[in-house]
Design brief:
By secondary structure, the chain is of the alpha/beta class. The chain is built from 17 helices and seven strands.
């Protein structure tokens, strides 16, 4: 079954007794791992207990299909439900899990399966979504609300307060991978100390140059029309695990800020006032480049760029061309448009 978002927290804390397998999949590998870990620990609090936990690669199951049933049917010598973890799963084990869920072994063991992004036609995804004794949980990059909740959760665990401006800045500059975001926040909590308070300056000092720098290279190269720099930055971003949809959304957020700033200037604000009014604030090292881009992207052209990026995101989510190719094509079209405007 597809697990509704409203049931997720309760399910991760206490999985249904009838559930024999859970699939976590999606582009945010950190969120896949975090949620899989939470469910795994709800089943077997000590994940190092070799008498209760089996940890397998999907490739091992594909080479030895009988092993899934053997591990799931084994007795838990230390008591409690037995846990079988399966890593790096894909459609190579789709038919295997279809058989497993149609006729599970006796007992109450649970398989926790981790996968990357799966298309709607994926046999593995369809198997879990259609089975009454399984759950399929999609893990997409955190939206702004989820990131704000993560900021409060991680900093709150250290007794650290956070100003409104700092929280907005963090929500803007984190994202793409849940584990990386959590690591940045843990580093920030260490920076200010337990029971301290995060101001905007401290948030920018701790997170500004690291969490978002790679995407900023992509975004600013595209908006400035620097195609060679864009190709280099985009290749590096993909190599480091950035998802195409995350890149497209980062550029959409940038063009929304350009569009908003231009509208405020056209409405009578000075350029300096319009820049200062942005929330979260623009990182100071990027302000001069942002000013230049305001001249390249007047209101109507910025709106057209947003429409192009939105259509690219829709295309990237459908089966068809590789999402990386869709993303690269959209960004290069924007870079060519910026380059042509700069030459006028």
């Amino acid at each position: 079954m597809k697990l509704p978002p409203a049931r997720l927290a309760a399910f991760l804390a206490k999985p249904d007794a009838a559930c024999r397998a859970a699939l976590f999949y999606g582009p945010d590998a950190g969120l896949v791992r975090e949620r899989a870990d939470r469910l795994a620990m709800a089943i077997a609090p000590d994940l190092r207990d070799a008498f209760r936990v089996a940890d397998l690669a999907a490739s091992a199951l594909a080479a030895d299909p009988a092993r899934l049933n053997d591990e799931a049917a084994a007795l838990s010598l230390s008591g409690g439900r037995r846990l079988v973890r399966v890593r790096d799963a894909g459609d190579q084990v789709g038919a295997l899990f279809q058989r497993f869920l149609a006729d599970p072994p006796p007992g109450d063991s649970v398989a926790v399966v981790e996968a990357g992004e799966l298309a709607q036609r994926s046999s593995l995804r369809r198997t879990f979504e259609s089975a009454d004794n399984a759950a399929a949980i999609a893990c997409y990059s955190d939206d702004r609300r989820a990131l704000e909740e993560l900021v409060r959760e991680v900093l709150g665990a250290h007794g650290v307060a956070v100003s409104g401006e700092a929280q907005a800045y963090l929500a803007e500059h984190l994202g793409g991978d849940r584990l990386l975001s959590r690591g940045e926040l843990e580093k920030l909590a260490l920076f200010v100390g337990d029971n301290g308070k995060v101001t905007l300056a401290e948030a920018m000092a701790s997170v500004g140059d690291s969490a978002q720098l790679g995407l900023d290279d992509v975004v600013f190269a595209a908006a400035e029309g620097d195609a060679p720099a864009l190709e280099r930055a985009l290749a590096r971003a993909f190599q480091e695990g950035e998802m195409p949809v995350s890149v497209l959304r980062a550029l959409m957020r940038h063009f929304q800020r350009l569009h908003l700033t231009r509208a405020r200037v056209d409405g009578g604000m000075s350029e300096e006032e319009a820049l200062r009014s942005l929330r979260p604030p623009l990182f100071f090292k990027l302000q001069d480049r942002f000013r230049r881009q305001l001249r390249l992207w007047p209101g109507r052209r910025a709106q057209q760029a947003l429409e192009l990026l939105l259509e690219a995101e829709r295309t990237a989510k459908r089966s068809g061309p590789p999402p990386e190719a869709v993303c690269r094509d959209a960004l290069l079209r924007i870079a060519r448009g910026a380059g042509a405007a700069a030459r006028r």
